[in-house]
Design goal:
Length: 382
């Protein structure tokens, strides 16, 4: 899945003082000894290496971290990077910020054994499975491991979901008066002629593919059966309601599209970007809840193995997870944080409400769905 540069949000509108993660207190003699003797390249948890203090000391000694494909405006990675650097005094080198998941795995192979090799990757689900099968990742379990749902992580710790979102329907509320869209089915009505767009082509764009999956779930399909979603978009196109226009704030402002089926964090960002110009509303269809998350993994040959592990600990701390939320991405630990009372309610209020735990397709379900979409979509849109 390609990441695209997301809209940079106003820090004034989203101001928050975040708590620190981990301990930065001085290490004891025993901790220092553990830190110097631990092989962090094989440590599967901070505890196994002597604890967080030992990990912090070792990461600071390395002094550097290599990341890849992390656009500053995507999921608030710009602030995540700068806050990590400030907190630990570790310099982050960001390679190919607008790169794809495929390019991330390619970099692990091409730069293997060099000082430039990425220490960590942030990849889509299918690439997490692929990277693990190719032995590209080093197993590691963060302190909050037990709080990550079992369907959102590799049992051995090779990868684990970090943030993502649900397919949502965003719309110009001023265009539809007292009869706004309420579901996928409602978009088949004549009033939506030439109004409905996707964020790209489902044969190549993750958001558009997710829209087809969500439409399938809303029309009697399942994670094993995406066909009803393809049938739905065939009807939408035949009615003249679907328009093949790439969604963006500019086309929303111009009125070229009045409805956009997209990830909730992107539709929510459009609402902020067009505020005062378009009355943009967003909801997640209750009968078509399809979620997709990105996954974190540590390189099996990370040149900075302790810093890589500390980066993961930071991302899965309350501070890191809230910074994802500030970027309008739903952190994987959100339900646990809501229970613990550590979630930032201001950031959460900007996203549409959903209930229940998200379900994700297995690798085989995903592959089958992608193949079907690739085969049928060209004939659906003409």
């Amino acid at each position: 899945m390609n990441k695209k540069v997301a809209i940079t949000l106003s820090s004034t509108a989203l101001a928050l003082v975040l708590g620190a993660c981990g301990s930065t207190s001085s290490s004891s003699t025993a901790t220092t000894a553990a830190s110097s003797s631990t092989n962090w390249a094989t440590a599967t948890s901070a505890q196994a290496g002597g604890g967080m203090s030992a990990l912090i000391a070792a990461a600071k000694k390395e002094g550097s971290l290599n990341v890849i494909a992390l656009p500053p405006g995507w999921a608030n990675y710009g602030q995540l990077i700068s806050s990590f650097e400030k907190k630990y005094g570790i310099t982050i080198t960001s390679e190919n910020p607008n790169g794809s998941s495929a390019q991330e795995l390619a970099a692990l192979k091409a730069e293997k054994g060099t000082s430039k090799e990425p220490d960590v990757v942030d990849v889509g689900p299918s690439f997490a499975l692929l990277g693990a099968s190719q032995g590209l990742f080093s197993p590691y379990k963060v302190a909050e491991w037990s709080q990550i749902p079992s369907n959102s992580k590799d049992a051995a710790g090779n990868w684990y979901y970090d943030y993502g979102g649900y397919i949502s329907i965003g719309y110009n509320a001023s265009a539809f008066g007292s009869n706004p869209p309420t579901s996928f089915a409602s978009l088949l009505q004549p009033q939506y002629k030439g109004a409905v767009a996707l964020d790209g082509n489902p044969t190549s764009a993750g958001a558009a593919f997710g829209a087809v999956y969500a439409a399938s779930l809303a029309n009697g399909g399942s994670l094993s059966n995406i066909q009803p979603g393809l049938n739905y978009f065939k009807k939408l196109a035949a009615a003249g309601n679907f328009v093949p226009v790439q969604s963006s704030p500019a086309v929303i402002e111009s009125g070229q599209i009045k409805v956009n089926i997209d990830w909730d964090y992107l539709n929510a960002a459009y609402a902020i970007a067009t505020k005062g110009k378009v009355n943009w509303k967003v909801f997640v269809p209750s009968n078509g809840q399809y979620a997709s998350y990105y996954a974190q993994a540590i390189s099996a040959n990370a040149p900075h193995p302790a810093a890589a592990r500390l980066w993961e600990e930071y991302l899965y701390s309350a501070a890191g997870q809230n910074l994802y939320l500030k970027g309008l991405a739903r952190p994987i630990l959100l339900p646990a944080m809501q229970t613990a009372g550590t979630v930032n309610s201001t950031y959460l209020s900007l996203l549409p409400t959903v209930t229940g735990q998200p379900q994700f397709p297995t690798g085989s379900q995903l592959s089958a769905a992608q193949a079907l979409v690739a085969n049928q979509w060209p004939s659906i849109t003409g």
